[in-house]
Amino acid sequence: MIRFKLITALLLLSGMAWAQTTPPDKTAFTLKEAQDYAVNYSYTAQTSRIDMEKVYRQMDELIGTGMPQISGSVQYNYNLKPPVAFFPAAFFGGPPGEFQAITISPKQNSTLGLSLNQLILDGSYFIGLQAAKTYKTISRQVNEKDLLAIKADVASTYYSILVIDENIKVLKESVAKLEETYNQTKSIYEQGFVEETDVDQLKLILSNVQNVITTLERQSAMANKLLKFQMGVGLDKAITLSDDLAKVLADTPTESPLTATAGVESNIDYQTLLNQSKLAKLNYHRMIATYTPSLSGFVSYQWQNFSNSNRLFADQSKFFGVSVAGISLRVPIFDGLSTVNRIRSAKLDYKKTEIAKIQVAEGIKLQTDQANMAYANALDTYKQKKESLDLAKKVKDRALIKYKEGVGSSLEVTQTENQYLQTQADYVGSLLNLLNAKVAINKLLNNF
Fold this sequence. Notes:
Elements: H1 2-21, E1 28-29, H2 31-41, H3 43-65, E2 69-78, E3 84-88, E4 99-103, E5 108-121, H4 123-190, H5 196-231, E6 240-241, H6 245-250, H7 268-289, E7 294-307, E8 319-330, H8 338-404, H9 410-445
Parallel strand pairs: 1-6
Antiparallel strand pairs: 2-5, 3-4, 5-7, 7-8
Helix pairs in contact: 2-3, 2-4, 3-4, 4-5, 4-7, 4-9, 5-9, 7-8, 8-9
């Protein structure tokens, strides 16, 4: 009954673990939901967690080397030709000065053994435990950095989809107006009031816009697949984005630049390097500690059986017990200067991390200044392109109205439409650059 309850409990626990790792059946995602999903189920996140778990297991492995080590052994020997020893024949009533061969071992012997070893004192082991804890902290920080990169990648792709889809929407509105104008012009041409060139020019610009839309739709589909790949969603599964571009822009500073401060101490890269420096220092001390004596204790017990019978263990009275206990002290004396050189190498590694700390701190400041400048430039370009787009739309709409009223030309419509398309493309590019600059700053600030 107890065994049945234990098995049931294990099954329930495994079911709970499976429930925690099984992705939810969800198809619509806000940006925040997409990032959270990716943090839990993306391929990169899963691999990062496994790497972190491996570090934990390695730490447990190191701890285990200082725990009691118990081992058992079984050995069986069959003496095909038992060894002999020579004794004076006079011992057995023979003539003096001669020797007689006597078999000194039974045909069969077996040994059952059990031993216990325990580390008592080892400086390098205890320093190694401290290093393992530091390495465990580093692994958590590496995992945190991986998750931060995942969130940034998801945000960048999410934004690109929204921008592309908005661009498609705007261009489809232009196509609707152009198709209306084209159909009207074609009807007027059939009545003989306009030239065929007017019809052809409108058809050409309409074809160009439709081709751009087709290209953008393919880009949107590919970006959608990229997002699913980054999130860990199957590529064949359909998902939709719940946020829209208006909400994203509302959350994006567009009046004044978004700025980041150079918080070196809170930066994940700097924190990781601090622990790497600590780890290098511990390794240096561990190398020095290898010069200190190490002490361990041991206990062993063996059961030995000897028999000339054809059946092993035939005579239980021939089992003999042998037991021994003791301590072992290892004192390093000279190893050809190999330890000295390892200590020097470890010290150089520690010096490198101290230099790297300064380098990374200055690099974070530089990276912060670059991110702030990039956002400021992207914001200025975005404002200028947005203003240019509004003007291009006015010019395009005015040319279309003039053409419908008969005071403009199809060439003017084509030129203004092409100008609008180029301005629209420039605006979309500036908007995407602005959002990516925002992602860069948020990643720097760990603000996701």
